[in-house]
Fold this sequence. Notes:
Elements: H1 3-27, H2 40-51, H3 59-67, H4 73-88, H5 94-107, H6 113-116, H7 126-135, H8 140-150, H9 154-167, H10 173-179, H11 185-191
Helix pairs in contact: 2-3, 2-5, 4-5, 5-7, 7-9, 8-9, 9-11
Amino acid sequence: MDALTRQKVRVARSHYRMIAVIIIGLLAVDSNPTAAGEIAAFDTLKPAVLTYSNGDDFSPFAEATESLRGLSFPQRIEAETVLLNLLDRPGVSPAGRIQILRMLELVASPASAETLGPYLIDPALSHRTRRILEALDSELVVRLFLAAIDRTEGDLRVGLIGSLGRRQSAESIAPLTELAANEDPATARAAI
Length: 192
């Protein structure tokens, strides 16, 4: 089986898995339906993300993170939406954004990919964003990585190349081949 056929099989399997997860989530019966917007921990989290800096009271983030465990499928979607809205909210501190990304690792779905894409070029948020996107089963992720590689350099670019390599996508072969001849030695090594 050639590389293109293997890639098509992988994509088909990922679509079937995604459909299965959605069906299971929709069929799940939750005995205690509480939407993430109604979780008390999210109420204290919203003001905390605006001013949080390393060393401040971490309890709002700890409580919100703990509240994400054991959510039903619909609750996870709601929590993901709340966190993505907080992440994009103007005025959120950089340290607050990092904590939001940590929580998103627990609930992110392929629906998060487009919102997370711009954070790939932010030096403070790129690593955490890449971790989330690497785990997502979405064709968009490879395109986001490729677009970010074109807009970065140095360690950020090397990290993105590594993430792209872990995806093992046929779509990334040609761009990585070009980067292997890059004048920056670190970029060239990462692309090989």
